């Protein structure tokens, strides 16, 4: 696409935008089980209006925009209070990945300052932890050890304790972990960290804004926040169950000197003294203002109402899924996040059939499963979802179409075992990046014996995904 020689009329630009979004998932209708958290029109408008009021302001220099500094300070303070330590410090970030990157980076810098003789810093994480921790280790030159999980999909406490060395600088647990919605044994894991003088991070990006309200509604929720003395940092996404505008997350620290370790300063630049609290330089003022606005607008009572709806939808969907022959939910989810597996059918084919009907569910592996993050929007769509899930399951169980899909998946798996990876990478170029049917692709990837081969295949896929069609 060449740079336009002249401008396009506003109405035509808007019309093109509307046309482009026609094939997007209908998240307002509760059709997306990830990516978007829709709180309903009234709250959505409050968030959008707040964002618009500070659309052009830049959080890079808070002295120029003291309003943004006020919003960030008060938002962090409200989240610290929710996490059981009103004196905790922190910052707003662009999302969960930045919060996690900062938590890991600050742990590294803090350890380098306080642990003499540190040569190869390492972090311990469960195998179910978010890949942002792998990204952080990759970016910051850290060794990462993946700790196995038990049959309940929670981090193995004994294996974690056995993995600690004098090079360990951080232990991590999730509340909840994303694949199956279970909360790791944070009390036990953080106690291990405390006994060794190691920092401990709770990744509550998904659960930080829903689990406290589930607990207030009477649902048993394991401890995960600063109520535990061993927890030293927490990440919480506000653009998930906080229903703020993207991107908005918070990273909190019990110890202000650990937060200080995440800051970056450059004092010799000819352009002036440069200081930044996080990874970003320019920070959109709109997302900061919108995060503050939605917390103030809803308050505890408002979030309790949203959480009650989410809890009811979660219970309904979970019970209905388990009543469908051939489907089950692994583990005992503590939150509004769960997975669907099948021991009788190809669960990816069921996901493909749902995608054709306009539903967006993430596909997972180990074990193969479909992922659901249930939010307020699903109050209106949950019954239709269950009807479609039941019909799609029956279709896959016995239809000719499913047998053809079985043959495609089997062929993909067979090819992956006999063809060199270069041939597989060549053939994958002809795979659409926009198709709704992905069962065969997942079957092939699951059969590749070497992780590096899978990595190259996905790198090829990403390269095509973000390239303009030639």
Radius of gyration: 23 Å
**What can be said about the biggest beta sheet?**
7 strands, mixed
Please mark out the parts with pLDDT under 50 across 5 or more consecutive residues, or reply none: none
Give me the strand/helix succession: HHHEHEHEHEHEHEEHEEHEHEEHHHHH
Overall morphology: globular
Q: Helix fraction?
A: 40-55%
Average pLDDT figure: 90
CATH topology title of one domain = Aspartate Aminotransferase, domain 2
Beta-strand residue fraction: 5-15%
Q: Any idea what the CATH architecture of one domain is?
A: 3-Layer(aba) Sandwich
- Structural class comes to alpha/beta
Roughly how many Å apart are the termini? 10 Å
Number of strands: 12
In CATH, the homologous superfamily of one domain goes by the name: Type I PLP-dependent aspartate aminotransferase-like (Major domain)
Quick one: CATH class of one domain?
Answer: Alpha Beta
Strand order of the largest sheet: 1-7-6-5-4-2-3
Q: What is the tally of helical segments?
A: 16
Show the helix and strand layout:
Elements: H1 10-20, H2 41-53, H3 66-82, E1 89-93, H4 96-114, E2 122-126, H5 132-140, E3 143-147, H6 157-163, E4 168-174, H7 186-196, E5 199-203, H8 211-216, E6 233-237, E7 249-253, H9 256-260, E8 264-266, E9 274-276, H10 285-322, E10 337-340, H11 347-356, E11 362-364, E12 369-373, H12 382-398, H13 400-418, H14 421-428, H15 439-447, H16 451-465
Parallel strand pairs: 2-3, 2-4, 4-5, 5-6
Antiparallel strand pairs: 1-7, 6-7, 8-9, 10-12, 11-12
List keywords for this structure.
single chain; 470 residues; alpha/beta; Aspartate Aminotransferase, domain 2; 7-stranded mixed sheet; 3-stranded antiparallel sheet; 16 helices; 12 strands
